Amino acid sequence: MSTGTTKLDVVVSDVVPVNELVTRFHFRRRDGQLLPTFSGGAHVVVEMRDGERTRLNPYSLMGSPLDTREYTISVRRDDVGRGGSLFMHRHVRPGMEMVISYPVNLFSLDLRARKHLMLAGGIGITPFMAQTAQLAAEGGNFELHYTCRTASLGTYADVLRERYDRRVRLYHDDRDERIELDRLLSSQPLGTHLYVCGPSGMIGWVCDRAAALGWPAETVHFEHFAAPQPGAPFDVTLAVSGKTIRVGEQQSLLEAIEAAGVDPPYLCRGGVCGQCETNVIAHDGKFIHNDHWLSEQEHRSCKKIMPCVSRFEGGSLVLER
Ligand code: FES
């Protein structure tokens, strides 16, 4: 069994459209027991069985960690992605039986912080739903700044404002409202930790400014899941398993390896945790590295690949798997 991928048999207990792009899904255990405990920032990997094909996508848990009767996730529809979000939106209905992983937290709160400064962009709000619930229950000091394209796409903005009032600040792109980042980062009390989740441009901007303004790296936390991208099919030889497989256009390399009956480790399936790191034995072609785990130097060396998000173009690829 892969690391961190112990499975839970669940039933979909509710499906709630949130706005024109986002739908919320509720899961309960099939055996009626409570679900495992989790902490704010955790995610689960949802298995989507779509005919012959199984997709596994990670989603942040957004309910209160104090209530494990059900898990909730929110899925933003991506019309040009590989189909996972469309499958959830089109096919998942209340009463459907599904399999999800145990929760894993790669974006946990540092509870030593005297204050938690949270910056969310778009659907990046979801881990903060659970984190703010956790902090509110524990009497933690937090402030959330949430940017969204329009008020109608401000997923859960109303809920958050109602729950936490002035601890939540909203910014709407269509009204040209922007976070005054330097001022915000420069005016925090000592012992503040910074958390950011949203589009990669936003994460890069916030992390760069925090570093430039002297925030210690250990106080800056970010959730940077990359969705696997479609691309041209390619062939891979798995040297340890003695198999040669084809990675389809809409398939990730990790999914193709799994479909061949090989069970590689993974946690995030989004290029950030390092679990799926795989050695390259030989190659003749070009790597398309999409992860946030390997260094630039490691990307250039072509000696490793993160199969959950990265692809290959060219003649031949042999992996130590
Ligand atoms: S599974 Fe986390 S980096 Fe690939």
Automatic annotation (TrEMBL):
Its cofactor is FMN. Residues 234-321 form the 2Fe-2S ferredoxin-type domain. Keywords: 2Fe-2S, Flavoprotein, FMN, Iron, Iron-sulfur, Metal-binding, Oxidoreductase. It holds the Pfam family DmmA-like_N. SUPFAM superfamilies: 2Fe-2S ferredoxin-like, Ferredoxin reductase-like, C-terminal NADP-linked domain, Riboflavin synthase domain-like. It comes from the Bacteria. Residues 5-110 form the FAD-binding FR-type domain. This is Oxidoreductase. It comes from Mesorhizobium onobrychidis.
